[in-house]
Amino acid sequence: MDSEEDLKELTPTWHDIARPSQLPPQGDWNNWLILAGRGFGKTRTGAETVRSWIKDGLYRRIALIGQTFDEVRSVMIEGETGILNVHSDNERPRFEPSNGRLIWPNKAIANIYGADYYEKLRGPQFDLAWIDELAKFRRPEKAWQQLMLGLRLGKKPRCIITTTPRPITLIEKLLKDPLTVVTRGSTFENQENLSPTFINQIVKQFEGTKLGAQELYAEVLSERQGALWQRSNIRYQVPENTSWQRIVIAIDPAVTHHEDSDETGIVIAALADNKNAYVLDDLSGRYSPADWGRRVVDAYWRHKADRIVAEVNKGGDMVERILRSIDPHVSYRAVRATRGKVTRAEPIAALYEQGQVYHIKPLQLLETQLCEYIPGITSKSPDRLDALVWALTDLFLEKESKPVLNMWVRGN
To answer: What is the rounded CA–CA span in Å between residue 117 and residue 191?
Structure first.
């Protein structure tokens, strides 16, 4: 019978079974950006690289960053191809969920961070970072900036980024950075390890589409197939010699307040005397009710707004109580959604296409949400989009000047 040592020698290592695109590149680089399709094996690539480098004593203070703490835990650490499952029993780190860290037998430590709370990256120091699904972060630039300030230990601190690509500014910057090496890979490179049913379904549904190019072949697209808004339809203009006929602030309130809550959408828009609408600002964010209430009231007086509107279906009565408790003199109107989200959004997207809506400045998070919203595919509630739709609906309905909006039902 083979001894335990003999069996270890016969067991294939990661370097034996990994595809070349899953192994760290040679050369002098700071960031390894892995842009790959669904099912490529991005998570295992990140986990195995971290495991190997820690085993070799190359890195000892690591940051593991996902959109939320729970996503780091469920995917990067405890997932089927996460850190815990790519280690042998005698090398596996001890996971301390309450402390948000992993501790290896050689005393290397990895701390867990949710990018939504990027301020927690302020202070700690690292020599290695692994970021998963950067393209879905709500504030990727903020999280990146804080990480770069802390990635300062050792002779050669490095960052591994595993993500399905989306056309966000940070990814575009990384692609142009001479100290970033880029690995691209498609879903089909890992086909032998994926369910035939999955392959058949995604080919039938997405092959030949722009969404398929992004999600399967890892292409960074500037436009998304099927999205209601296209970037080419978002125009910027600061009107000259005009006055605002009406200014409204729309709220799409989050119903909970914790790390994984939706954001509260807060969008300010105005109707000019040239009959075009202008989006003045996006104040959306993850706030407590008291916090977003103060922000809205402050914006109401700062912009000299005519009205605050909020959807009754999502806590409209609560919105009014909060606002009145802060300032009983604000003008408020509740609106009720009697149609589905797509039906409400389509006429507003059409106004963008017709050149009747402008942004007075770039509003990256709002614009990204608009251009990534695909009816029937996008699962997360688009809070900023909803607030925008309510604001522009109120403006155009007030004058009853847009027949395309006749399908809308007035609120209370």
So the answer is: 36
Higher pLDDT, 1 or 104: 104
**Equal CATH topology for 12-215 and 231-405:** no
Helix, coil or strand: residue 395: helix
Please tell me the distance from the alpha carbon of residue 69 to that of residue 174, in angstroms, as a whole number: 24
Dihedral angle computed from the Cα positions of residues 223, 211, 386 and 133, in that order, rounded to the nearest 10 degrees: -100
> What does the alpha-carbon distance between residue 131 and residue 121 come to, in Å, rounded to a whole number?
13
Q: Which CATH class is domain 231-405?
A: alpha beta
Task: Count other Cβ atoms within 10 Å, centred on residue 400.
Answer: 9
d(CA 36, CA 164): 5
> Residue 163 and residue 131: Cα distance in Å, rounded?
8
**Distance of CA 82 to CAs 247, 271, 276, 336, Å?**
50, 51, 51, 44
- Which of these, 261, 269, 325, lies nearest to 297 by C-alpha position? 325
- In this predicted structure, the answer to whether residue 224 has a pLDDT above a threshold of 80 is no
Q: In what order do the strands lie in the sheet with 31-36?
A: 94-96, 101-103, 109-114, 61-66, 128-132, 158-163, 31-36, 180-185
Of 84, 66, 384, the C-alpha closest to 250 is 384
C-alpha distance from residue 210 to each of 64, 95, 143, 220, 352 (Å): 31, 40, 28, 10, 21
Using alpha carbons, list the distances in angstroms from residue 205 to 27, 166, 184, 216, 277.
Answer: 39, 19, 22, 11, 37
> Domain extents for the chain?
12-215, 231-405
HSE-up (13 A, CA, CB side) for residue 231: 14
Per-residue pLDDT tens over the stretch 61-111: 999 999 999 999 999 999 999 999 999 999 999 999 999 999 999 999 999
Eight-class DSSP state of 275 = S
Distance (Å) of CA 17 to CA 44, 51, 189, 196, 360: 12, 15, 13, 21, 53
Q: Are 45 and 79 in contact (CB under 8 A)?
A: no
CATH for 12-215?
3.40.50.300
